[in-house]
Amino acid sequence: MGLFDRLSRVVRANLNDMVSKAEDPEKILEQAIIDMQEDLVQLRQAVARSIATQKRTEQQYNKNQSEANNWQQRAQLALQKGDETLAREALQRKKSVADTANVLKGQLEQQTTQVDTLKRNLIALESKISEAKTKKDMLKARASSAKANEQLQSTLGRLGTSSAMGAFERMEDKVMELEARSQAAHELGGADLENQFAALESGSDVDDELTAMKAQLSGGSVSQPALEGTSEQKTDSGAAPQSEVDDELEQLRKQIDNL
Description:
CATH topology of the domain at 8-146: Helix Hairpins
Shape: rod-shaped
Number of strands: 0
Number of helices: 6
Order of helices and strands: HHHHHH
Pfam families: PspA_IM30
Distance between the termini: 115 Å
Helix content: over 70%
Protein name: PspA/IM30 family
Coiled coil: 26-74, 101-188
CATH class of the domain at 8-146: Mainly Alpha
Region (Disordered): 212-259
Strand content: under 5%
Keywords: Coiled coil
CATH architecture of the domain at 8-146: Orthogonal Bundle
């Protein structure tokens, strides 16, 4: 294999690869429809020219056929008048015009066949273009869907390792940290309140206990009955215990004031 053949093959291979990569299905389909429509326009023009030619040939045929009939009638008239020479001349004219009419008739038949074929081809091309337009819209929709899906998959693939996804994860950690600190602050604030209420409740218990003790002391001094013959002894002997009670009561009062 020669060097130029190898170079030519390499160049053609690279060009084909470039063309394949550059082909966009949507653009290629649009261009294909445009090309088909241009062919349709040219075919319509060809059909129109063929029909026009057919009409002219038909007119010429009818004209020559009419002239041939006229010369036939003139030949009959000349023969009836006894002028054979004139009748012969009329018949020669008739033959010439009739030959032309026969030629035109053959052309007309060919042109009619050609026009019919062109019309069928025109109808077939119009049907193909209509079908191609429908298929083009369908293929374009499929191509768009495939491109969108490919782009989505590519985006999802990048999300796993992208810095944006890492930023989301870091922000999620920070939000969780803020929530934990807020919860801790709330719990600490609740503990302080519990302590304050516990202190109040403790003070209330002391007051209740003091009130109960007062009631006990007051009830005991009133309800104790005085025994006959020993009232003085009880009064004398009870002075010391009463003084101790008062001292204890005073100490309790001081303790309460210090709370």
